[in-house]
Every structure is written in C-alpha cells, then in structure tokens.
Amino acid sequence: MCQQEDDDASPIDLEKYLCDIEMPFKKTVTRESFAEHLEEYHSQVNICLQNESTQYKAVDQVIRVVKTLCYLLDEVETPAITDAVRKLRHSVNLPKTSSPEVNARSAFSTNGYTSAVEEHLRALTNAVYDLVKLYLCSFCLTFPVRTDQEHQEKQRDIQVASSITEHVHFRLFAIHGISNAWVNSYEKYYMMCALMHNDGNLLKPLKSKKVGIYKSFFYHIKWDELINFPISVALLPLETILSLSLYGVLNQNSTNSPDSNKQHKGPELLGKVTMPLFDFRRVFAAGTKLLSMWTSPPLSSPGPVGKSKNLEARIILQIDLPNPQVDVLYVSSLEATLPDLQSLGTPEPDIRRRIEKLCTLASSSRLKQGDMQLLWDQRYHCQRHEHSLPKILASAPSWDWISIAEIHKLLHHWPPLSPVCALELLDSKFADTEVRAMAVSWIEICSDDELTDYLPQLVQALKFERHLKNSLVMFLLSRAQGNVNVAHQLYWLLRDAIQEPVFGQRYSHVLGALLCMCGAGLRVEFEKQTRLVQLLGALAEKVRQSSSSSRQVVLQEGLEEVQLFFQRENCRLPLSPSLVAKELNIKVCSFFSSNAVPLKLALLNADQLGEEINVMFKVGEDLRQDMLALQMIRIMDRIWLQEGLDLRIVNFKCISTGKDKGMVELVPSSETLRKIQVEYGVTGSFKDKPLAEWLRKYNPAEDEYEKASENFIYSCAGCCVATYLLGICDRHNDNIMLRTTGHMFHIDFGRFLGHAQMIGSFRRDRAPFVLTSDMAYVINGGERPTSRFQLFVDLCSQAYNLIRKHSSLFLNLLTLMTQSGLPELAGAQDLKYVYDALQPQSTDTEATIFFTRLIESSLGSVATKFNFFIHNLAQLRFSGLPSNDEPILSFSPRTYTLKQDGCIRDASIFSFQKRYSPDKHYTYVVRILRECQSEPQFVFRTFDEFQELHNKLTIIFPLWKIPGFPNKLVLGRKHIKDVASKRKMELNMYVHSLMRSSAEVAQCDLIYTFFHPLARDDKTEGLDGLLKIPEETPLSPAIGRVGGEVKLSVSYRNGTLFIMVMHIKDLVSDDGADPNPYVKMYLLPDPHKTSKRKTKVSRKTRNPTYNEMLVYSGYSKETLKQRELQLNVLSAEYLRENCYLGGITLSLKDFDLSQETVKWYRLIAGPF
C-alpha cells in the first residue's frame, strides 16, 4: 500500500479521485454541460446574425440559452448580463446601419459592428464569459481557466497595506438562487456585516438596508449598497475575516412559513458566509466575489411551487470589492529585541502568587478581564511557566499591525511547548498564521500513535485556518504519506467531514490532495472500502425500512450481494487497516432489534491465525459522538497506563463513514447486563447475585473467578471515572456490557456531557454514574463490605486524580470539537460540565473526598436499579405481568395469583415491629383474611417493600386508578417508633383503599404476590408474640477485643493541619455482629475537649471507607511538634453507650509536615 516509484511519475487527476465522493452541494457544472451550452449559445448567436428577418425570435432564443447558462451556474445573474439582455431586447427592432460579413469560425467578424443588435450581442457574450470565468474561479478549482496570451495580466505594482489609510469598504450587491420558500415566507431581508479576528468582532457590526425580492431571470435579493467600515486597511490583522449574515423578516400574513405554527418575535438567521480579506499571498481581496452561503436547515426546505432548493443547492452572495491598479500587500512589521528580564524588576510576592495561580488554570477561557490585563503586563515574567503561553496570547489586547510585532517576538522567544499544550493554539481564538504554524512545529515531535489519538481534533482545526495552504495541512499530509494508519484514519475523517455544509468544500480539497499523494495501491484499498460501505449502507437502510416480518429475507438477499463483493477480492475494514476480511459468515449474520435496526456482521479473517471479525453497521444515527467518547476513554486509558495504573479498560473501535452511518467493532465473549439480569426474572436488576453468579458460571475454578473478580474491580473503577468525567447519560442496563473475563465496559454514547434524558421535569440519570448493589456484590465478594471495596475506592480516586492532572488536555480536545456539529457539544456551557467534573482547582485530597461522596451517592441510588427495571419492562414489551416462573417483586421468588391463593376479603396493618438485621428498621405486620379461611394470616413487610409495590402498580395502571402513597421523606431520624406509628396508620389507609379499588387493580397478580406468605413470615413470632414485642437490647460489639488498621493521610499547609481518615479494615467483635464504626479524634493536650472531631457513622461493617477530612486551623509547625493526635474508633449503639473498638496515639513530632504522609496504622487498646 506504500507509495511506489511509479506513483511519482503518474499524472494527477483530482476530479477523477473525487468523482465518487458524496459532496454537500449538488454538482451542477460538468465539462460536458458547459461545452454543450456554450456551443448552443454560439449557434443561436450565429442564427441571430444570419437571419435578419427572424432576428426577433432568434434574440429570444439567445436570451433563453443565456438564462439556461445562468441556471446552470446556480442562478447567478451579473449586472453586466442583466444590462446586456435589456439593451439587446430594446435594440432588436432598431434599423440596422450595415451588414457584417459573418466569419465562418465565429459569431462576430473582425471588421467590427455598426448595428445595435450586433453591438449588444458582443456585450452579452463578454458578460457571459466573464460570469463563467468568475464562477469557475470561485467554485470549480478542478476546471482550468485559461486566458489568451494577449489578455494575460502583467506584473502589478505593490503597495504595502500598512500605508493604506482608506477605510475598508465593499459593495453588497445581491443574493442569487433563493428558494420559493423564502419568497413566500419573508417580507424583507437585511445583512449584518462584520470584520472578525480571533473569533471576535474587530468593531461593531454594520446593518444593511432592508430590501425585498427582485426578479429578472430568477428571484434574487438585491441591495447594491456600499458598506463602509470605520477602520483603515492599515490597522487590519492579516487574518481578518469578513463575516456576512443574512436575516429575514417574516411575512406575518404568510401561511407557507417553514415555522408558520410558531410565534416569531424577530428576524430569523437565514444564512451566513465568511471570507478572508487577505489571500494566501497576503494580497488584499479585490474585484467581484461569489460566495456560497450556508443556510439553516429549517429554512432551506422547498417551497410549495416552483424551484425547490435544499441543503445541496448553493445560495450565492455577490459582493464587489474595490479593484485598485496595484496589489495591496500585507507586510509584517519588524520584530524588536526581547528586553532583559533583570531590567524589568521582580513582581511583588502577591503578584507572583497570583500569576502562578493564573498560569496553572486548566483553560484560558476561565480568565477574567483583570486577569488578562495582569498576564499581559507581566508576560515576560511568565516564561518560567512555559505552558502559560496560550493564556498570555489570549490576553493580548490587540492583534493589529502595530501590536503583532510584540506578539511574534514573544512567540519566537518562548520555550517550546509540549504537543498537548500546543493543541490549544489551534483553536479558533488563535487566528494568527505565525502562531498556528509555531503550534504545528511543536506538535510535529509527537509519535504517530499519539498523533492518531488527536487526529479528529486536528481535522476539525482545519476549519480555523484561513487558507488551504497552511502548516497544518502540510503536516497532516506529510505524516499520512509516511504512515498507513495515519493515512487510513485521515481518509475516513475527511470523508465524513465533507458532509458539513460550511466547510465541506475545503475538506474535499484536502481529501483530493491526500488521494493524489498516497499512491495507487492505497487508493485501490480506499476504493474497495468505500464500495463495501456503500453496499452495507444500502443493505442496512433496506432492512431498517422493511417490515419486521420481511427483514430476515431482505437481509439474506442483501448479504448474498455483499458476498459477491468478497468473492472478487479481500477488503480491509474502515475500522482499521489491519483488519482484512475475506468473506461473510452469512449463517451468523443478523440484525439487532433496536430502533435503528443495525446489522450484526460476522466476517472471516483473511489472516488464518486471526479470529473472526464481528462488527455492527448502523444507519440513521450519528456515530461521531460515540467516536469522540471512545477517543476520550482511550486517551484516559493511555494516561493511566503511562502512570502504571492498569484499569483493564476494554477499548473498541468505532468509525463514522458518512452522514448518519458507520461501523462499530463488537467485543467478543460479552453480554449486556440486562440479558444477565433477566435470567433471574424481570426484577433481576433488583437482586445482588446475578453478575457474580454469571461470572462464576464462566469461571468455575476458584483462581479463575478471583481473576475475573479482580478484572471487574479494576474495569468498574475505570468505567465509573470515565463516564462521570464525560457525563455519559442514558445508562440503562443494555448500554453496559460484561465480558466472561470480568471486564466491564460501556457502549452507545448517544448522550454525554450531562445531557440526561428527561422524563417530564425529572432526569432519567440521577446518580453520578452507574454503581449498583450487584456490582458491589462482585467487588466485595459477598454481601458485606470488605477491604476489596476499599481497593475499589482507592482505584477510583487514583484514576480520577491522574486525569485531573491532564485537565487542560481534555478541555483543549473538547474545545476543538465545539464546531463539529455535535448537538451536545456546541459551546461553553457543555465544556463547563467537564470543567466542573474535573475539579481542576482542588487538591488531590479534596478530589479524593469529592469522588468518595460520588461513590456513596451512586451506590445508594435506587433510581439506577429502577431505571434498569423500567428498561427490562420496555424490552420485554411489558403489557401485564410475567409468567408464574418469573418473579415480579424483588423479595418474592415467584408470582402468585388469586386463583392459587384464594380471594382476599380484607387486609389491614395489624402492628409493627423493630428489627436489627441487616440494619435497624421497622417491619409492618399485615393481617390478611381470605375467603374460605376462618383464621387470618400474618405477613411482614417493610415500608420499602410497600414502596416497591406502589411503584410497579403505577407502571401497569394509570395513576388515577391507584390510591396515593404515603410520603417517604422524613425530617430527622426515620427509624424511630413515632415515625413507624404514623406510617402504620398511613399504610393501613393505603391498603384499605387499594383493596377497594377496581377488580382490575385489587385482584391483579402483583397484589396477590405481595400478600403471599413467604418463608421468612413463618419464622417470625406468632400472634401472641406480636401482642407483646419485647424491646430487647441488641448485643453490641465486645469491648475486650481490639483489632484492625486505619489508613490516614496527614498533611500541613497554610497554618492548617489536615487529617484525612481514609479506610479502616478488619475490625473485630466478640459476638460476631458487625459494628457501626466511626472515628473520634483529639489534638492533645486538650483539657476542655475543644479539639474533638468526628467522622460520619458507617453502618454494619468491619471495613468502613470514610475519606473524610478533619481539620485543625491556626497552628504553627512548632506548636504541632509538641502535640499528639489521639484517634479512637467506636461503634455507635442505639440503646446503650457507644463501644470502643480500638485507637492509636500519634506524636506529630515524628511527622515531616512539609509533605503528605499516607500510612496504615494498627489499632490498639487504649484509653477512651
């Protein structure tokens, strides 16, 4: 596939290479159509001149051909054509003064013309050729535009732009090719004209006059207005952009408005176009320009009658710039020498600290005006913070011709930036060519592997270049020429980017350059891949559009056609050039049942030792967001591995191969959590053991299971951190997968950056990330918390802090993608989510505490499991209740019916009872009386189980059929007798109303399953015991035995001692019951106990995780050297004094307070 010697000698045919590529605009102009219409034009002119008797009709034919030519050129009609046509019509009836001798080769003789018709035909011909030349120069770079030798321009004189004091001005002429939808919908139009640089306005935009629609050959919007900016050419930065935005004032009487059902309060943006004022030669723009405007999708729909314009049709803006006799050339000012830092003096300590803080900000977008002024004033003192250059340049007050010398001087004397930091200089807010070229020179040192990680952002950065001839394009093409992987990925990124309506043409030129230089071998590979994608795209669309009953037949027929393609030759897949397929395994191919109905394809590997290649091909969905999320996760994994942390991340490939279509690699030996959980019934998501038992099934040996559990712990930690930082939403159990080896990973990233799916006014994703009790069961190795969960917390904290150190990298990468067209990454608000999630200004200790709270919040969220349950119901197309062998309540092993148990005559809450296993709670005694039974039955249900019953009833029945449920929210302590007594009355009213509801509700299987006696009900004390419930004092952990260890972090800064209580492990008790541990701490001596600090209480665990900070402020290091830290671990008890579990006394003189100390300490028996 590499470039060969023959490739260097072969001719380049750009048009041939690009002919099969889908373009964002329809191609109305071809060589053949041009030749045909120009030949017809000359033929009609000859007829007009030769037949004087029918000259009137002949003129009409000439004008018809001219109109056709204008239509071919996107309905552009220049003033010269309009004027020539008008004069030709007027002069056709005038008397002819002489008869010319018609030349056999041309429409005109060399003897000159005296008749008005001949004169105006000459003018019309010149106008037509001027339009053709103008159009081809504007839009058809593959068409060579030749001029006669005698008309070739001589070398023009040059005038330096910095000497031009004249204001920037141009004539806004007209917009051509507008649709009937605009004609029928808008009354007036105006243009906002702005001069821009670094993504901002150089001065206040100017507004044109409001005009209506005009028609000659075609409808057009005509201003013919002079726009004059109050700024001289001398002050313009080299990269100044002329930005023109078209607005339409809605016709209030129109019923054909694209948004006629909406209330419009103001003008609507219809289209926009930008143009650099200096070309790649640094010459100021001059003469007439045709600019292709992009239009907003809602406003480009076809009108009810006449010509239909769509996103593929051009709307052309015509402007006229001054055309002086000289070329106005931008010449940079001379750089001054860098001043001596010693002569500048040293900033005050407060200023230095402020500068250091500003230089360490993760993004220059967080700078305020005062901060920017300070950084620019102290720019020479910031050089020791080399990564601060983007912030310094973003703080520059001006980029005009006078100021640019200072900026370039600073740039050229700055220490080289790392490639990661240099990426920020390719953002749209840095337009300067020299700055961008320097950034590319710094990025050039990165390896090819690192380059491919950043390639999507570099392709996006091409939008912010002012001209095609730039350092970034040359860099990308040169690296693609030297590495097939880079060329392969660049090819597909460019093919996908071509679909953008604004920058598609620019990307097509870069793609053409890539195809010209990559060599015949690689071009053949790209052609085969493109053909395969076309076949799969057509097949996927057919399957998607087919009825569910005929999809399998359609799929089989289409697969046979794809198989014929493979019979001719092997093909590399767009996912990677290393994946070579030789044929389809048709028997295994199928489709998924999701909304997009993607194809599931199995391909035989051309490598005899390679495994079968499994991919998914999808149409109808934009995969670019999935690509971006997977890229971010891949970069996170690389950072973790470089730091020695292997979180066993599963990386898989995804590629967008065009508009709303693409290919995704399928990970073998994996299953969705939903399929694992529903093996235990539709309520399997509420149970703790499904994941562990599924892993045990595939890893029966103890060492295999331990390895799988370890993989699960590490990969789950990576998933939690990555999905939180990227704000991945829509996390139901079909979007999370588990390999038989224990590796967990996420798929389908259709929602990210915190854009959660809403159900009414509620977020569907309420937890910070997905961490459920069945995952904790695998992590702990059982129901009780163990030290393995502490390992999980430490892994999450370590991974989180490692990514935080690279906050600027992720913010830069995402910033470069804000103009990619992704709906959920469109601006600063979306980036703010990532900035807030990264907590870049927090210390590692503070971030560890923060993420520990997130873990607790996620693990304690009932919403995640309920979300899983709802998804299970949706996938099963839940229309009632499952069959008897599928449990519908988390605490009931199966489903029971009225027919099985007998009709319930009455149900009421008889009493309540306090329980202590697994935690302190109250259970409610339900008295049930059935028909044909003389004695009542008693069952025991908790408040949460009543809540589960009500939640599931609301899924099956409309809310108006179900009584209201008591409020779960309780202010203060909820596990006390007064709360239980109040709830007993409320639940009794609820049960009473429920049993008197309609028969459809009161006799449903869900209610009879809820009231069916369970095995635990039989083990509970009988009625006599219920009448006298002894309030026994629960046994407490023994005081005599002490054991376990505590992990502490001790640090000191700014006069404050920070003690972070991280974990405690292996606490012991004589009676075997799990304690409720918490930590109490004193700074001794402390006779009045004013230094007491406490952590929260962890319930029922021997291995609690706290990650809580206990702080002592106002102490000097010398004072602390004379103090001791006393730490006690106690168990919180309800009905007796708290129990002592162990403690330790630490002398602070043994600590080096200049650095953080993290260490495990063994607990011993000591004074309480």
TrEMBL record:
In this protein, which residues make up the domain named PX? 902-1018
* Localization, UniProt: Cell membrane; Cytoplasmic vesicle, Clathrin-coated vesicle; Golgi apparatus, trans-Golgi network; Nucleus
Looking up PANTHER family in the UniProt record yields:
PHOSPHATIDYLINOSITOL 4-PHOSPHATE 3-KINASE C2 DOMAIN-CONTAINING SUBUNIT ALPHA, PHOSPHATIDYLINOSITOL KINASE
Record's GO cellular component, any one? Answer: nucleus
Q: Which GO terms describe its biological process?
A: cell migration; endocytosis; exocytosis; phosphatidylinositol 3-kinase/protein kinase B signal transduction; phosphatidylinositol-mediated signaling
Q: What class of enzyme is it?
A: transferase
Q: Which residue ranges does the record assign to the C2 domain?
A: 1042-1161
The residue ranges of the C2 PI3K-type domain are: 164-339
Citing just one GO molecular function, the answer is:
ATP binding
Give the family, as the similarity comment puts it: Belongs to the PI3/PI4-kinase family. Type III PI4K subfamily.
Principal location: membrane
Matches recorded under CDD domains: C2A_PI3K_class_II, C2B_PI3K_class_II
Keywords for this protein: Acetylation, ATP-binding, Cell membrane, Cytoplasm, Cytoplasmic vesicle, Endocytosis, Exocytosis, Golgi apparatus, Kinase, Lipid metabolism, Membrane, Nucleotide-binding, Nucleus, Phosphoprotein, Transferase
Q: What is this protein called?
A: Phosphatidylinositol 4-phosphate 3-kinase C2 domain-containing subunit alpha
Provide the reaction this enzyme catalyses. Answer: a 1,2-diacyl-sn-glycero-3-phospho-(1D-myo-inositol 4-phosphate) + ATP = a 1,2-diacyl-sn-glycero-3-phospho-(1D-myo-inositol-3,4-bisphosphate) + ADP + H(+); a 1,2-diacyl-sn-glycero-3-phospho-(1D-myo-inositol) + ATP = a 1,2-diacyl-sn-glycero-3-phospho-(1D-myo-inositol-3-phosphate) + ADP + H(+); a 1,2-diacyl-sn-glycero-3-phospho-(1D-myo-inositol-4,5-bisphosphate) + ATP = a 1,2-diacyl-sn-glycero-3-phospho-(1D-myo-inositol-3,4,5-trisphosphate) + ADP + H(+)
The PI3K/PI4K catalytic domain extends over 585-863
* Taxonomic superkingdom: Eukaryota
Domain PIK helical: from-to ranges? 341-517
Q: What is its EC number?
A: 2.7.1.137, 2.7.1.153, 2.7.1.154
What the entry lists under SUPFAM superfamilies is as follows: ARM repeat, C2 domain (Calcium/lipid-binding domain, CaLB), Protein kinase-like (PK-like), PX domain
Q: Name one Pfam family in it.
A: PI3Ka
Cofactor entry: Ca(2+); Mg(2+)
